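Input sequence (338 aa), recorded before submission:
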Amino acid sequence: MTASASAPDSPAPDSVTPDSVTPDSPAVDSTGPAATASATATAAAQRPWRGVLVATALPLREDLSVDHDRYAEHCAWLVANGCDGVVPNGSLGEYQVLTPEERAAVVRTAVAAIGGARVMPGVAAYGSAEARRWAEQAAEAGCGAVMLLPPNAYRADERAVVAHYAEVAGAGLPVVAYNNPIDTKVDLVPELLARLHGEGHVQGVKEFSGDVRRAYRIAELAPELDLLVGADDVLLELAVAGAKGWVAGYPNALPRASVELYRAAVAGDLTTALPLYRRLHPLLRWDSRVEFVQAIKLSMDVVGRHGGRCRPPRVPLAPEQEAAVRAATEKAVAAGLT
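Predicted structure, token format:
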């Protein structure tokens, strides 16, 4: 794998670039709406993982090759519908079954579609050196941050975890840790996260353990470490507990309703958030199931997006699973939650 892997099969559409602030920006009223927008953009540039970043599903052609045109359009569509950025090459993006050339090209396609500032690729790999090379490729592509699982080829101890994150942080981009002890068997407990943050290796954590109590312990031990919702079906609980962002799955199919839910939840507007959360939860809970990729892609198909097939070894949903996802998605569409 090299950072100079081949380009996408087709050019991406014109960029849809999020708001940004540069040193040459004109002065604005320090008290008016423009000042608020400027401050928001500056904060986003400093912590580009905040807000709703969609762990993007990857559209494939009938021959299971990557459809870069559709992927670029999908990234732009998510931003146009209120999402703040994208996370390519996560588990939802099937990174484990991509070639190195495909994986690098997916990142470049996302950057071309929405600008690099709010693209946070997953850089997980079995080896720390390979993960660092992916982080270097992300930096060269213009990304604002990267997301990194702990070592997952074996049950790594604390020393190995710290060395792993230190190596990847050396690439120069901010690192958001991804805690998924269910799949990796390595648990980034709050005490370890506080150490990683204190030593400057991580700036945030995507929390997928499902244990919402950890939010409060993390805040006590590392108050400057940004907590990101990592599982769709604990969004409300972690938002109320102080989450600063959401690395999200179901906005791939329902971006507007998902963004509305997130904004209301982090604002403490439970009058809006709780009924919406209840209506979406039959779908959101699929994000924590083994078949989450197939489920989210099916929901995309139901709402008129291109979800499509997955690469092996993933197989289609069982008939009863497909029926449940389809029914829940159709109910959401009928309720106007698209």
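Checked by second reader. Strands lie at 51-55, 85-87, 146-148, 175-179, 204-207, 226-229, 245-248.
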